[in-house]
């Protein structure tokens, strides 16, 4: 009897131990599965949600704008040192309609594209001419100003009458400007300048022979300094359209800027700014 009792007790204990072992194994497996799901959930939570450029601008509360600050009447400093100008006021109005504040980052023209490449700005408002080669790398807003290139020389200059006369002459130009291309195509020797104002200073001091520049800038110069001893001797027949510049991949931001520009033209805000600087509608 003792043998049978011991044998029965051994069998019962074996079954109980086995059952406990299986239960622990199942609990451990379930625990590991739960941990894996938790890790996966945490990993998913850690991935940042993608935001487009318009959302980023609105989240930051500001539109970062690249501009020269030395190119009157488009972007310059007034007598009190305040940044102002046609492009500046257009950009300010656009930012207002996007519901954000404009933050202007002043940059020399020859570094403004590199600044956009480095994402220092969200956009450039600086009389940037729409060109096919630029469209390959950047996106433009709808054009907001139309102008023509003119050839400017000292009043007493009798040698340069048309663009073709630039051959062998010194022309003061910003190196990456489309205006420089016109000077080069006509054989000019290019003297690098940081913008319109410096080109005018070099011209007045006779360190250069001419500059190919924006006709609207020259009109503003004559308005501000009617006695300046300079004249326009030739003008390109084709008008150039300028617009805000963006890195590619910012479709939502470009569309929002276009909508703002359209609204400005519809409600008279654009015309008010245009007439302030030019006395006319310069959008066409």
TrEMBL record:
It is found in: Cell envelope. Residues 1-18 form the signal peptide. Its main location: other. Residues 29-58 are annotated as: Disordered. Pfam families: SBP_bac_3. SUPFAM superfamilies: Periplasmic binding protein-like II. Residues 29-46 have a biased composition (Low complexity). It comes from the Bacteria. Residues 62-281 form the Solute-binding protein family 3/N-terminal domain. Keywords: Signal. Transmembrane segments: none annotated. Belongs to the bacterial solute-binding protein 3 family. This is Amino acid ABC transporter substrate-binding protein. It comes from Paenibacillus rhizolycopersici.
């Amino acid at each position: 009897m003792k043998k049978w009792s011991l044998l029965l007790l051994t069998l019962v204990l074996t079954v109980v131990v086995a059952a406990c072992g299986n239960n622990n194994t199942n609990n451990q497996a379930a625990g590991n599965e739960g941990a894996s799901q938790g890790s996966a959930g945490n990993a998913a939570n850690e991935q940042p949600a993608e935001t487009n450029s318009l959302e980023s601008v609105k989240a930051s509360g500001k539109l970062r704008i690249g501009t020269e600050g030395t190119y009157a009447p488009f972007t310059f400093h007034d007598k009190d040192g305040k940044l102002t100008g046609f492009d500046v006021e257009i950009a300010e109005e656009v930012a207002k309609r996007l519901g954000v504040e404009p933050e202007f980052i002043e940059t020399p023209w020859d570094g403004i594209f590199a600044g956009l490449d480095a994402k220092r700005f969200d956009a450039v408002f600086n009389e940037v001419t729409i060109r096919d080669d630029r469209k390959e790398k950047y996106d433009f807003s709808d054009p907001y100003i139309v102008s023509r290139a003119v050839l400017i020389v000292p009043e007493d200059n009798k040698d340069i009458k048309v663009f073709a006369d630039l051959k062998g002459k010194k022309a003061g130009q910003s190196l990456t400007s489309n205006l420089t291309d016109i000077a080069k195509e006509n054989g000019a020797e290019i003297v690098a300048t940081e913008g319109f104002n410096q080109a005018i200073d070099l011209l007045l001091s006779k360190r250069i022979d001419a500059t190919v520049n924006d006709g609207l800038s020259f009109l503003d110069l004559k308005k501000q300094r009617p006695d300046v001893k300079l004249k326009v001797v030739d003008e390109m027949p084709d008008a150039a359209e300028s617009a805000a510049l963006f890195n590619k991949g910012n479709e939502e931001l470009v569309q929002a800027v276009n909508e703002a520009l359209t609204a400005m033209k519809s409600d008279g805000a654009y015309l008010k700014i245009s007439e302030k600087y030019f006395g006319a509608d310069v959008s066409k």
